[in-house]
């Protein structure tokens, strides 16, 4: 398909077959909000469960579900109030708002326009002669402003508390860390996962469910002691990956790096072993759920793209319709988040790490004479005492002088050192309180769903007729099995079909029962929504040597095989789990000509 055709075909199929469609269409719709239909909701749920199984269950991580609305101080601490912005340019003619960096990227070869300052973006718009996509008016000379993406709300009536819809699920994990660490027995490393909704008031939502104002994230916050906890790469060191490092992006002749996780970490291409570990897991997971690995890469953030707290960050990107879209981010967030909440919150965001053996250390301490500080400094006395303690930790030699100078809210004050009662004590310590560092894999579920649909969309010809189908992995397909009685007016066929459908549902399969229309038409309907297998009950399965058998048809190849009803559940369990292939089934049973 040519560029543009893939998205158009996918959007049409999604709406017609119930994967997703614009919300509130009866009231004119509103940009950036989508409803998942029966097929899409099932596919999305399966993707979430597949993620949960791999990143929560198999990794032994905890899972929580935090509120989607949080009070304003949370986002003041996290930095979202001041720095969670995109660049907005407004058309003077029609008043439409557009995201400036997207306009620049869509009309130039620049791929990282978000790294520009608002002033640089405005200059670039003028240099490129860009016009408003809505009305065609010239945008040169229009200012580019930072626009905060959070949705604001009020919590409670009357003089209510200001709050915001969370722009990421991560803050719900960080804020609850003081309690969650107790569930993890204060033992690092440990991970906490969350799958849930997030909200961003996007300037210009686009490409259906790729950029929306309400979306689902699956995030893992992995807490480590950076001095003691090392990633074990043995499980992923041989995983092959396609990397696009920052150095290659900036080079005139830059290219991809095809390597393994182990080699990339050893060579310093991936500078952090924990990031390498999660990139390796993600590579295997994406392949399992059906992402086309020929259209997949990991791209390292350029310096200007990284958040100020992130020492390194990689995006998992998929190619759809000629564009690369971010579907996950992997960031080393250091101790920024817990330190900030420890500074602003009223709880302990550290973990006590016990030493292997107790250590004897010398500590500089003060015991300020409050009877002297109180009358001299009044309301500032407690601040002065705290400043003396901080100075003793940072610069104990300062107390060799007769007096020390302190900064109290921008004002310099002096205190006699004998009032501080400074001393150096020998102490035995069993451990220390540390603020854990965080490694964060963050997955966009909606973008993953879009990628799976785009990569699964295929067309071919069957029996002289054009066919479109979704080659979805059996592990995430919204419907696992279609059950068809060949005709609907033979009681024995209908009864056996009913029994087969009931047995498969009892075994945990999502089953669609269809007795309407020709068998070919029924196959086409299921092919188009990605149902991997169809079971047909015909007369041959009731009579003679083939008694009590059914045919099972594989979606992609259209091949069919006859097997006993008693073997059906076990066969489908293996096919869905990937422990058996349809070729194995063909080898072991009677092949049926289509």
What can you see in these coordinates?
The protein has 594 residues and is an alpha+beta fold. Strand 15 and strand 16 form a beta hairpin. Helix content is 33%, strand content 30%. It contains 20 helices and 29 strands. Keywords: Aminoacyl-tRNA synthetase, ATP-binding, Ligase, Nucleotide-binding, Protein biosynthesis. Its main location: cytoplasm. It holds the Pfam family HGTP_anticodon.
Question: Which features characterize this protein?
Answer:
single chain; 594 residues; alpha+beta; Herpes Virus-1; Rossmann fold; nine-stranded mixed sheet; six-stranded mixed sheet; 33% helix
The residue fraction in helices comes out at 25-40%
Q: Which stretches are low in confidence, meaning pLDDT under 50 for 5 or more residues running? A: none
**Which fold does the CATH topology of the domain at 479-591 refer to?**
Rossmann fold
What is the makeup of the main sheet?
9 strands, mixed
Structure in a nutshell:
By secondary structure, this protein is α+β, with helices and mostly antiparallel strands. It has 20 helices and 29 strands.
């Amino acid at each position: 398909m040519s560029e543009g055709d893939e998205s158009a075909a996918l959007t049409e199929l999604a709406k017609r077959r119930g994967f997703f469609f614009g919300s509130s269409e009866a009231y004119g719709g509103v940009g950036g909000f989508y409803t998942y239909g029966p097929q899409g909701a099932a596919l999305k749920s399966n993707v979430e469960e597949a993620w949960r199984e791999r990143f929560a269950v198999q990794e032994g991580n905890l899972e929580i579900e935090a509120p989607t609305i949080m009070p304003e101080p949370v986002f003041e601490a996290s930095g979202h109030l001041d720095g969670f912005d995109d660049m907005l340019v407004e058309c003077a003619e029609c008043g439409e708002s557009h995201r400036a960096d997207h306009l620049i990227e869509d009309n130039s070869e620049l791929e990282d326009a978000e790294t520009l300052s608002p002033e640089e973006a405005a200059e670039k718009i003028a240099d490129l002669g860009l016009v408003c996509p809505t009305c065609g008016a010239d945008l040169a000379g229009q200012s580019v402003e930072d626009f905060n993406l959070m949705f604001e709300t009020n919590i409670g009536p009357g003089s209510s508390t200001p709050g915001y819809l969370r722009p990421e699920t991560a803050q719900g994990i960080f804020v609850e860390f003081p309690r969650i660490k107790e569930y993890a027995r204060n033992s690092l490393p440990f991970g906490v996962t969350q799958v849930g909704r997030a909200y961003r008031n996007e300037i210009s939502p686009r490409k259906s469910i790729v950029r929306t104002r309400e979306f689902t994230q699956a995030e893992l916050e992995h807490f480590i002691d950076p001095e003691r906890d090392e990633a074990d790469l043995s499980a992923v060191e041989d995983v092959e990956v396609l990397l696009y490092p920052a150095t290659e992006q900036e080079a005139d002749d830059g290219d991809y790096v095809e390597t393994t996780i182990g080699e990339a970490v050893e060579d310093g291409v991936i500078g952090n072993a924990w990031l390498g570990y999660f990139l390796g897991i993600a590579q295997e997971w994406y392949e399992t759920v059906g992402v086309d690995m020929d259209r997949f890469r990991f791209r390292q953030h350029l310096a200007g793209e990284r958040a100020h707290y992130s020492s390194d960050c990689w995006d998992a990107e998929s190619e759809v319709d000629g564009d690369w879209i971010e579907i996950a981010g992997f960031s080393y967030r250091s101790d920024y988040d817990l330190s900030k909440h420890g500074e602003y919150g009223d709880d302990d965001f550290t973990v006590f790490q016990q030493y292997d053996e107790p250590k004897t250390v010398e500590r500089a301490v003060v015991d300020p004479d409050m009877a002297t500080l109180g009358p001299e400094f009044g309301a500032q006395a407690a601040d002065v005492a705290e400043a003396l303690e901080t100075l003793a930790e940072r610069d104990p030699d300062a107390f060799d002088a007769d007096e020390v100078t302190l900064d109290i809210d921008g004002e310099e004050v002096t205190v006699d050192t004998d009032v501080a009662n400074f001393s150096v004590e020998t102490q035995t310590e069993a451990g220390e309180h540390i603020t854990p560092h965080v490694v964060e894999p963050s997955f966009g579920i909606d973008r993953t769903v879009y990628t799976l649909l785009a990569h699964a969309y295929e067309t071919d010809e069957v029996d002289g007729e054009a066919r479109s189908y979704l080659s979805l992995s059996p592990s995430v397909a919204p419907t696992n099995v279609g059950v068809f009685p060949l005709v609907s007016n033979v009681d024995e066929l209908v009864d056996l079909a009913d029994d087969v459908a009931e047995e498969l549902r009892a075994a945990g399969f999502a089953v669609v029962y269809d007795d309407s229309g020709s068998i070919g038409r029924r196959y086409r309907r299921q092919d188009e929504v990605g149902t991997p297998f169809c079971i047909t009950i015909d007369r041959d399965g009731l009579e003679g040597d083939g008694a009590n058998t059914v045919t099972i048809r594989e979606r992609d190849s259209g091949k069919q095989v006859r097997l006993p009803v008693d073997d059906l559940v076990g066969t489908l369990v293996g096919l869905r789990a990937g422990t058996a292939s349809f070729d194995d089934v063909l080898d072991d049973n009677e092949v049926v000509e289509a």
